[in-house]
């Protein structure tokens, strides 16, 4: 199949949007791939990345392979890409990785829901209590000489991002990472249905024992066993991390991220001690007043799953949950703080969003909502203010539960 046909199929109908040649106010990514690629088949590619204001001729090029990424989003003309570089590279001040993502955020008029959510979670980190989430930077992308608009260059969740030790065949137990890829993964049952094994590499070793043991315990343990301070859920799951993750889901209103679209990670157990699972957030198309399909969500939105429901039945845990909320409500999760983060992103990308809108103007009838960038920002701010107020009242009421 000719490259032009593949470009029209995989990247939207060809349009007269020439690749920018001058320095841009956002970092610029030029992608070049001569062979067709799909979600499941890669092609060799070259990625040239110029910092904001830097000319292409002075930018560094990386080689690797590229594929399409996404599920429902593949139905939209502006595609997301996954790249696997030949060598690890630290891009735009982020840590060195081989695996990188260019997120199209086609249905997200604000273009910032992913970045805002991951930045929020990482902002909760404290000494000895990291909150792992993808770092990201706004960029503009050209593919094979055609301008494609504003993207989010993101880290993929991997061993390095999560600060986990490497796989060693001789170890009796291993670092493990699992991705919740369907709603079956939302602690609704024992076993690993709905999860995808990320680490160890499943082509090297199928390693479901840690996750199976966790989900079996969540469903089979008695109340006394579940909350036993020595051998209960606190010995198997980092509860401080779980509280912060649950609060992130609640604050952002990510109703597509409470039963899927998250990672569960566990370090390799040290000699003579157990290891605890922790959450890593992922996929925030559904956030800040917008569902995964860009339909509106109400500010009166409580989100949970069987694991969090069971935890919140315990008065001690509920007290810890409420105390953490009261800390964050006046800091990172305050309306003022979130609005400042939104404004900072707007300042960075406002000009580029005009170019993005022009590039995809012909696809306007494919957007699930009629909002402009400015209207979506206003909607996000209004929803956040109403939602935080409602959430605070709801958590305070739940704290008084006997």
Summary of the model, kept short:
With 402 residues, the chain is an alpha+beta fold.
Layout of helices and strands:
Layout: H1 3-11, E1 28-32, E2 43-50, E3 60-69, E4 80-90, E5 96-103, H2 113-122, E6 136-143, E7 146-155, E8 176-180, E9 195-199, H3 209-220, H4 223-226, H5 239-252, E10 262-266, E11 278-281, H6 306-312, H7 315-329, H8 335-359, H9 373-399
Parallel strand pairs: 1-6
Antiparallel strand pairs: 1-2, 2-3, 3-4, 4-5, 5-7, 6-7, 8-9, 8-10, 10-11
Distance from first to last alpha carbon: 66 Å
Q: If you compute it from the alpha carbons, what radius of gyration comes out, rounded to the nearest whole angstrom?
A: 22 Å
Which stretches of 5+ consecutive residues score pLDDT under 50?
1-16
Query: From the helix content, strand content and strand pairing, which structural class follows?
Result: alpha+beta
Number of helices: 9
Beta-strand residue percentage: 15-25%
Q: Approximately how much helix is present in the residues?
A: 25-40%
Structure description:
With 402 residues, this protein is α+β, with helices and mostly antiparallel strands. The chain folds into 2 domains: 3-108 and 135-155, no CATH class; 176-333 and 383-399. It is 31% helix and 20% strand. The chain has 9 helices and 11 strands. The chain has a 7-stranded mixed β-barrel with strand order 1-2-3-4-5-7-6. A hairpin with a 5-residue loop joins strand 4 and strand 5 (96-103). The protein is globular, with a radius of gyration of 22 Å.
């Amino acid at each position: 199949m000719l490259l032009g046909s593949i470009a029209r199929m995989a990247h939207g109908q060809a349009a007269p949007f020439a690749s920018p040649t001058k320095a841009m106010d956002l970092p610029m990514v030029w992608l070049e791939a001569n062979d067709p690629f799909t979600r499941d088949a890669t092609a060799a590619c070259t990625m040239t990345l110029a910092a904001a204001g830097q000319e292409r001729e002075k930018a560094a090029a990386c080689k690797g392979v590229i594929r399409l990424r996404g599920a429902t989003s593949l139905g939209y003309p502006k595609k997301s890409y996954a790249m696997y570089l030949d060598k690890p590279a630290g891009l735009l001040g982020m840590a060195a990785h081989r695996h990188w993502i260019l997120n199209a955020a086609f249905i997200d008029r604000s273009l910032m829901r992913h970045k805002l959510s991951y930045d929020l979670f990482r902002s909760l980190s404290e000494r000895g209590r990291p909150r792992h989430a993808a770092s990201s930077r706004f960029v503009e992308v050209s593919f094979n000489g055609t301008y494609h608009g504003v993207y989010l260059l993101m880290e993929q969740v991997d061993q390095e991002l999560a600060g986990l030790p490497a796989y060693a065949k001789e170890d009796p137990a291993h670092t493990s990472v699992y991705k919740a890829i369907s709603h079956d993964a939302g602690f609704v049952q024992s076993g690993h249905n709905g999860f995808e094994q990320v680490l160890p590499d499943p082509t090297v070793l199928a390693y479901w024992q840690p996750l199976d043991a966790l989900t079996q315990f969540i469903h089979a343990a008695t109340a006394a066993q579940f909350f036993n301070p020595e051998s209960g859920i606190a010995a198997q799951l980092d509860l401080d991390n779980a509280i912060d993750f649950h609060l992130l889901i609640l604050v952002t209103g990510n109703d597509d991220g409470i039963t899927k679209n998250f990672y569960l990670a566990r370090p390799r157990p040290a000699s003579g001690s157990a290891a605890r699972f922790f959450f890593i957030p992922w996929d925030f198309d559904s956030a800040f007043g917008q569902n995964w399909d860009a339909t509106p969500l109400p500010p009166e939105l409580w989100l949970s799953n069987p694991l969090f429901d069971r935890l919140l039945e315990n008065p001690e845990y509920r007290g810890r949950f409420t105390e953490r909320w009261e800390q964050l409500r006046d800091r990172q999760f305050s309306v003022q703080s979130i609005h400042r983060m939104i404004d900072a992103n707007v300042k960075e990308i406002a000009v580029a969003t005009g170019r993005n809108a022009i590039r995809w103007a012909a696809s306007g009838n494919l957007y699930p909502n009629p909002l402009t960038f400015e209207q979506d920002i206003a909607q996000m701010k209004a929803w956040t203010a109403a939602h935080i107020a409602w959430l605070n009242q709801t958590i305070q009421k739940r704290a008084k539960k006997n």
